[in-house]
């Protein structure tokens, strides 16, 4: 078990330090030490602290209360339905379009067996800023993409020096480093980015059977000008103990940064994904994509066509949207086991999918 602690260096002297424990969370969580991120998502001038517990990507948020040594819990919720989904420096708060709203960017680990067999993918989400971080929920998460080998760290930089901010994603078991370059426009819309694959290992994975140590398991990434030569650098690490693979990689930008640019992942029509898991109990999730903004209704219906639960009805922006249903009706009560349908109406387009609740 882990708990959050905040230390302050009182005398500004690392040679003979005097430390003060500013805050100690009385509640323990499951291995939350993998992720400590800070930011001001709600732009109230008070910094937040984000931790991720090693269970269902359990996001826990604290905030400074505006005075010395004063912190308070704000909210917590699960992002994943997978027990061993986690984060590893997997959150950043940024304002790519330099407007009056911050965004939060998050990546998840995916899950795998101890010998490296992949079970579920990792996900890349973008979260719109909120006026009150205590009201943040999974419903604010916008799905951008999934990666079969999972993701570890996300970081921000501009290695190619073109003035466009880049989000660097450590593609763990994909043995890859990805770059989402922001081109301008709504930062919640995937079409306003272009994805580059900066690095992908193509060497033989010479590992001992029964473990996952043969791969270049990209884990950490840093962007900057390391050697002060005016060229952008990317430094990333591998979490593998493979004797035939490096643990530290350094890439310097030289006009051709990527080995592949991908924008085919962005659909140009309304799409509605199948829920996962299905059948489910008690929660399930799915995503849908809007190629343009407009009026939208999304709801769950029983086999007789009666509305059971309405997710949303109103105007929505372009992009991918992620949805979690907890098996309740419009009054908050649990619905019985059975077959249900979720229907998306977007303009003149209507799409329906079946889901099954088993208890």
What does this structure look like?
Residues 286-345 form the FlgD/Vpr Ig-like domain. Pfam families: FlgD_ig. This is FlgD/Vpr Ig-like domain-containing protein. The protein is an all-beta fold and 359 residues long. It folds into 2 domains: 31-256, Integrin alpha, N-terminal (Methylamine Dehydrogenase, Chain H, 7 Propeller); 265-358, Sandwich (Immunoglobulin-like). The protein has strands at residues 5-9, 19-24, 36-39, 48-53, 58-64, 71-78, 91-94, 103-107, 111-112, 118-120, 122-128, 141-147, 151-157, 166-171, 176-182, 193-200, 218-224, 233-238, 248-252, 260-262, 271-272, 284-290, 294-301, 307-316, 319-325, 338-346, 349-357. The chain is globular, with a radius of gyration of 22 Å. Residues 256-261 have low confidence and may be disordered. It has a 5-stranded antiparallel sheet, with no helix packed on it. 0% of the residues lie in helices and 46% in strands.
List the main descriptive attributes of the protein structure presented here.
Methylamine Dehydrogenase, Chain H; Immunoglobulin-like; 2 domains; mainly beta; 46% strand; 359 residues; four-stranded antiparallel sheet; five-stranded antiparallel sheet
């Amino acid at each position: 078990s882990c708990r959050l602690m905040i230390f302050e260096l009182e005398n500004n002297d690392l040679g003979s330090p005097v430390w003060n424990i500013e805050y100690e969370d009385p509640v323990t969580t499951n291995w939350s030490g993998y992720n400590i991120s800070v930011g001001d998502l709600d732009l109230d001038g008070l910094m937040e602290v984000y931790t991720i517990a090693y269970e269902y990507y359990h996001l826990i948020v604290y905030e400074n209360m505006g005075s010395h040594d004063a912190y308070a819990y704000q909210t917590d919720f699960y992002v994943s339905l997978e027990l061993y989904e986690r984060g590893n420096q997997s959150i950043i708060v940024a304002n790519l379009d330099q407007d009056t709203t911050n965004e939060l960017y998050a990546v998840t680990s995916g899950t795998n067996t101890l010998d490296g067999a992949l079970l579920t993918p990792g996900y890349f989400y973008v979260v719109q800023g909120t006026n009150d971080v205590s009201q943040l929920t999974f419903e604010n998460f916008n799905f951008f993409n999934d990666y079969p080998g999972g993701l570890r760290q996300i970081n921000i930089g501009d290695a190619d020096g073109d003035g466009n901010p880049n989000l660097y994603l450590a593609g763990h078991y994909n043995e890859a480093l990805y770059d989402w370059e922001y081109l301008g426009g709504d930062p919640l819309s995937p079409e306003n980015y272009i994805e580059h694959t900066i690095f992908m290992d193509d060497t033989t994975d010479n590992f001992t059977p029964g473990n996952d140590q043969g791969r270049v398991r990209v884990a950490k990434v840093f962007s900057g000008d390391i050697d002060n030569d005016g060229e952008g650098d990317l430094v990333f690490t591998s979490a593998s103990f493979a004797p035939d693979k490096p643990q530290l990689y350094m890439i310097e930008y030289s006009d051709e940064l990527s080995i592949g640019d991908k924008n085919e992942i962005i659909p140009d029509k309304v799409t509605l994904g199948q829920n996962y898991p299905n059948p489910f109990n008690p929660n399930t999730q799915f995503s849908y994509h809007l190629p343009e903004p407009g009026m939208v209704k999304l709801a769950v219906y029983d086999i007789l066509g009666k509305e059971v639960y309405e997710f949303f009805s109103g105007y929505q922006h372009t992009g991918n949207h992620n949805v979690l249903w907890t098996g309740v009706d419009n009054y908050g009560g649990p619905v019985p086991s059975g077959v249900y349908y979720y229907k998306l109406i977007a303009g003149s387009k209507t799409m329906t999918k079946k889901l099954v609740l088993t208890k």
